[in-house]
Amino acid sequence: MPRKLPPYCECFHDRHGKLRVYFRKGKGARVALPSAVGTEEFLQAYQLALAGKLKPETKRESGPASGTIGALIHSYKRSAAFADLRDTTKAGYRSRLDAIGTAHGHRSLAGMTRANIADKILNPYADRPGQRLAILKMLRVLIRHAIELGQLNHDPSLGIKRPKTQEIRSWSDDEIAKFEEHWPVGTKQRLTFALMLYTGQRRSDVHRMTWADIRGAAIRVVQQKTGAKLAIPLHSELRAVLDHVTRDHVTILNTEYGKPFTVDGFSQFFRSAITAAGLPLDCQPHGLRKAAGRRLAEAGCTAREIMAVLGHKTLSEAERYTRDADQARLAEAAVTRLEAQKKNEYSQTAQDGVGNSRQNRRKNTNLGLGLALPRGLEPLFSP
C-alpha cells in the first residue's frame, strides 16, 4: 500500500493490477501523478497540480472512425449475437477479428467490394487455404452484422468461392490396429483412444467426460459445440478399457498432475501419442470421429442411427462421414448384380449344338487320361 496521500489525492489499482494515483480538487479535472508516493518526483508533480500548472488527462478516443471496418468490428463485439456465443467460440472469433482489425480496420465499408475483399483481404492468405477460409467466414459474419445495422444493403462477398481445404480423413482399420498394438490397455493413451473411437465425440467433449457421466450401460454427453444431449451405449471394447482405470478423479482423463486437461493440452497429449505409435501426420484426432462414423456405416447403420451417436443435426452432416462406406457398399452391390447377370447369360446347360451342351463338352475334353479338365482351362488344351 502507498504511504498516506496528501490532500486531494486518490489512488486505486486498475484492471491490470497497476497502481494509479490522481490529483483532483473539488469538481476539477483529474490529473495523473507518479505512482511512487513520497518520492521527489511525486512531490514536484503534486506542487504543480496544486498550482494548476499540470495538465489533466486527455480523454481517450472513443474508438475507430465511424464507417470503417474497425468500427464494425467494435460494434459486433458489443452485440447480443457475439455475447450469446460460447466462450470457446468467442476466443476463436476474437483472434480472427483482431487479425482483420489490425490489417484492415482503417478501410471504409463503402470500399468493401468483392474485388477489394479478394485482392486486399484474402490474397495474403493464398498459400494458407485454412486461414483464408476462416477469414472469409469471419468477414461474412461482419457483413451480416453491417446489413442488420443498415450500413450495407448487400453482401459484397457473394461470388467469392470458398478455398479448397484438405478434409480430415478417417483412420483406416490398419492404423487403428497399429495404435492399439503400441498403446496397450491400461495406458492413458489407450483410454483416450477408446473414448474417442467408441463414443465418436469431439476432443472438446471427450476431455470433459466425468465418471458421473457413465450411468448404467451408457455414457451421457452434452456436446459443447451444438448443445446436443446424447446417451451413447458403452461398446464392449470401451467397457474393457474402462475396467482397467482407477477412478481417482472426477474427470476420466487427467494430466500427470491429476488435473483435468485443457483443450489445447489434451490435443498436444494425444498428438504425441499418435506420433509415438508411428502413425502419419494426417492421422488427426478428429479422424477417430470419422472412423466411428465409417464403422457405423459399414455395419449397415442408417444415417439417422449415425446421427444419434455422433450428434449431428442434419442428414448431410452424417452423410459426409459415411460417404466412403456408402460408395463401397453400393459398388459391391452393383458388381454382384453384374456378375449374377453374366451367370444367367451363360447357363451351364446352354447348347453349343444339337445334343451337345457345354456341360457335356467339358466332360469330354481331356488329355487322353480319362480325366475332365478343371473349368476355365479347356481353351488351353484345344486342338
From TrEMBL:
Gene Ontology BP, a term: DNA integration
Keyword vocabulary terms for this entry: DNA integration, DNA recombination, DNA-binding
Comp. bias (Polar residues): 346-358
PROSITE patterns: TYR_RECOMBINASE (PS51898)
Pfam family, one: Phage_integrase
SUPFAM superfamilies assigned: DNA breaking-rejoining enzymes (SSF56349)
Domain Tyr recombinase intervals: 166-335
Gene3D superfamilies in the cross-refs: 1.10.150.130, Intergrase catalytic core
Residue span of region Disordered: 342-369
PANTHER family from the UniProt entry: PHAGE INTEGRASE-RELATED, PROPHAGE INTEGRASE INTD-RELATED
Family: Belongs to the 'phage' integrase family.
Protein name as catalogued: Tyrosine-type recombinase/integrase
